[in-house]
Specification:
With about 80 residues, the chain is mainly β. The chain is built from no helices and four strands. A four-stranded antiparallel sheet has the order 1-2-3-4, with no helix packed on it. The radius of gyration is 15 Å and the shape is elongated.
């Protein structure tokens, strides 16, 4: 379904990591969508395995010419939420 994903580290502390993500995909009618948001992961300090994952995301309908990820690459348009130091 054309699925392309990009994740970037947002912040981390101790056993927790937060990432922001963007992905594009199309549905059964060939309508393109961009899903974006934040994920929060908590890891078990003994095993290192993920013990909790929370995600908050939004779906936006987009036209083919609005896609950031084309031709199998990860080219993308302007950053909708630039990170600052």
């Amino acid at each position: 379904n054309g699925y392309r994903l990009r994740k970037e580290l947002f912040c981390f502390s101790g056993d927790k990591i937060a990432v922001q993500f963007w992905y594009e995909w199309f549905d059964e009618n060939k309508q393109w969508w961009r899903t974006y948001g934040l994920e929060h992961w908590t890891f078990d300090e003994t095993t290192g395995l993920m013990k909790e994952r929370r995600m908050s995301g939004n779906d936006v309908k987009i036209a083919d010419e609005e896609r950031w990820y084309k031709d199998g690459g990860l080219e993308r348009g302007p950053d909708p939420a630039p990170l600052t130091e």
